[in-house]
Fold this protein.
Amino acid sequence: MKNKLMVSFLALVLVACGSSGSLELTKQEKERVNGDVNVARQLLVQKAILKDASAEKLSEDDQYNLNLAKQEVEVSYYLQKKFESELNNIQVSEEEAQKYYDIHKAEIGNTPFESIKDAIVAQITYEKQTGIVNKYYEDLLNKYKIEEILKKDFPNAAQAVEAPAPAAQAAPAEAKTEEKK
C-alpha cells in the first residue's frame, strides 16, 4: 500500500510540475527510488509521457477532467495519510465476528464459523473503516454548510444527504464472496 501511495504521489508531483526540460531524475526522486532501477525507469517513462503530452493541446473538457483527476488523487492521498494509523489499527474481537456470523447466518448458510472467520473479520474491518471516513465526511458537510450551499445553488433539486464513497478502501465484495463459500 505504501508503494502505491508513493507512486501515486510521485505521479501527482510529476503532473503538477509539468514536463519542461530534459529527462532526468531529481535528487529527491533518486533518493526515493533507493537504487531500484525499475522504479527509476517508471518515473522516467512517466516524465517522457508528460513531455509528449505537454505538446498536445487539451480541450476545455480535457483540462477540466485532468484537473478533476488531480484533485481525486490529492483527496485520496490526504485521506489515506489522515486516517492511516486509525484505519490500520482497527481490531475485531472474536465476539464481534461471532455476533456478525450469527446475525448473517441466513445469508451465510451452513458454512462453519471457523472457515469464514477471516472473511467476516475483513468485512467488519471494512465497515469500521467506512464508518470512520463517513464520519469525517459528515463533519465536513456540517463544518462547511454544504447542504446550505446546495440548496442555494440547486433550489429545485431534492437534497439527499449522502456522503461520497470512501476512496481507496478495501472492497467488501471480496469478504462477501468469501462468506458465501
Summary: The longest helix spans residues 113-143.
